[in-house]
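Journal club prep — side note

Before the paper discussion, L.F. wants everyone to see what a predicted structure for a comparable chain looks like in token form. Sequence:
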Amino acid sequence: MTLRERYGAFLGIVREIHDLDMADMVLSWDQQTYMPEKGADARASQLATLAGVRHDRLTGDAMAETLAGLDESEGGGLDEDGRVNVREIRRIHERERKIPADLVREIARVQSLAQQAWVKARAEDDWSAFSPWLKKILNLKLQTADAVGWKESRLDALIDEFEPGATAAGIERVFENLKKEYIPFVRRLLDAAAAASPPAESKPFPVSAQEAFCRSLLDLIRFDSKAGRLDVSAHPFTAGNGNDVRLTTRYDERRPEMAIFGVLHEGGHGLYEQGFDPAHEGTPRAQSVSLGIHESQSRTWENMVGRSRPFWDHAFPLLRKAFPEGTAGMSPEEWYRRINRVEASCIRVEADEVTYNLHIILRFELEKAMTEGRAPVDELPRLWNAKMEEYLGITPPDDAHGALQDIHWAMGAIGYFPTYTLGNIYAAQFFRAARRAIPDLEERMAAGDLEPLREWQRREIHGRGQTYSAERLVETVTGEPLDARYLMEYLNGKYGELYGV
């Protein structure tokens, strides 16, 4: 078999695995949006079967034999795209071969059932109904960590699934350094915000009008609605790839910001998924580098664009037209201050962009303690509330506003949370580079012309797929290693001006 024939056979298997991933995506998306409640058991079985088939294709003899005849080094005969694809598939092939197939299927089955249990437990504020499921998931994920292998912390093996190459110790160092300046900064802002006049009571923003307005925002940021869709779920998320990208959000008549910024956030994820080179569909060259990089794209559109003055110079008249009663008597400046109000709050996905990172640090610290046996599942609500008091000075009124609020643990996504704050750090550094590359970016945003920013992201980030690691991508795009000071510069500049601190 020639190199070309062997690589073609390799791509055939890789694209079959991608097809299985997309089938899993549709079933999972349906589970969280439209599936009847009684479909949970059958869906769990379907997802477990798919996970098993995928695992077999990824780790089986056909893949192993094909990889054995391919070399991802520069002298191996493959072009750069081929080397990227072989390198990344080899990496996950070697990881997944260590995990027993029965364990893979059982994780998929339990996660599916746990998500349904979480929806009910959250609605009923009943931690005791969810904790047995979390114990099962934690046990299965710890078995995974032990199978994969780890040096310092079991959490390392789980983080690697979402942020390849990152470790709990490395993330802990980043967070501890950030906290030194960040926590005093947040406290100064919270004091200044408390001294400011509270926002006026919100008038209703009808849900039907919110739905239409959110779709118009997706059009504005150049999300291709013919290659995607927007629906409602208990917890906002993005799924899919290429020409089939699914976004979800949720609505509240009194808090339109929840849907507006949820859609801008998920829309940023969606732009990343739509921005890969279609010539490489189904391969690592058309997939995201890491969830931290993915998050950087969503946070850019949600915060650095969506919560900026230039964006609302263009969008506020559209908001006023969509919600004449809700915005009656409101000035653009009042709206800008309302959407950038810093306030200690319980719900992560509704938190302002300043306090948000403390929500993430809290979750990371609990995950580390949980996976190291220092935080029993039954004790998590108490430990959660203690950290909320320590970092934000508030205690959740119930577990639905505390340890039950996120779907991630029900999904088995232990090790996922740190990628959110890493994403904010990446986003600040990327956005600084984008402003250098597009000197009139703010003027374009004020005119509603967001095409230059989307195209810059496609060229510099999306279109590269997994060519580089997250660390190297940051250096390639910005010219220097990742540095959290750019996040602090961004927040100090924006909120220093807003609150005079």
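L.F.'s comment for the group: The chain has a mean pLDDT of 96. Keep this in mind when we get to the figures.
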